[in-house]
Amino acid sequence: MTEKRKTRDADATKLRIMQAAKKEFAKHGLGGARVDEIAERAKANKRMIYHYFGSKEKLFKAVLEAAYLDIRNAEQKLDLESMPAEQALEHLVRFTWDYYLKHPEFITLVNSENLHRARHLKKSEVIAVASRKFVAMMQSLLDRGVKEGVFRPGIDATQLNITIAAIGYYYLTNRFTGTIVFERDLMTPEALKERLAFNLDTIMRLVRADTL
């Protein structure tokens, strides 16, 4: 077998392991996930998992990093710089909401990491770099909005990002209890459309210059 073929096979195996691990960790968390189940899903053996990743903890860290990088990379590809500031921010809010809906495993992985007090993210330089890049992009968008006269000055980019994430994240992580407490199905197409409209209105009212 050629060296190129070996590398290609190794990359394919690692990818299968990562995909299988993402499903297992998203479903059961770090504590409940089983390496045997990951190996079976990936059509690999446990020896290969430990060979490529070292331990279940390190595999979880790799999956978590990949999950964060996926959303950060997707945000960078939105081409927000080419849009007027208001349109760009609305586009970002819509994207965040849609991403959470299409990637529920991202939310459950983040929940799991919070249970462990972010001990894996603390060791991740790649996440720190990607997050700084995103905050810088958000700050650039806000500064552009101020210059265009549509956003009020002094808005903290990190705080705004937290708010955009929170109004979607909370709704979806609490959809089951919320359905009981508020006596309405929070996940019908109409309810999701109504929620997105509310999110957009909330964020735009928060940043607009005419709200001063």
From TrEMBL:
Keywords: DNA-binding. One of its GO terms (molecular function) is DNA binding. Residues 11-71 form the HTH tetR-type domain. InterPro entries: Homeodomain-like_sf (IPR009057), HTH-type_TetR-like_transc_reg (IPR050109), HTH_TetR (IPR001647), NicS_C (IPR041474), Tet_transcr_reg_TetR-rel_C_sf (IPR036271). It holds the Pfam family TetR_N. Residues 34-53 bind DNA. This is HTH-type transcriptional regulator, TetR family. The lineage of its organism: Bacteria, Pseudomonadati, Pseudomonadota, Alphaproteobacteria, Rhodobacterales.
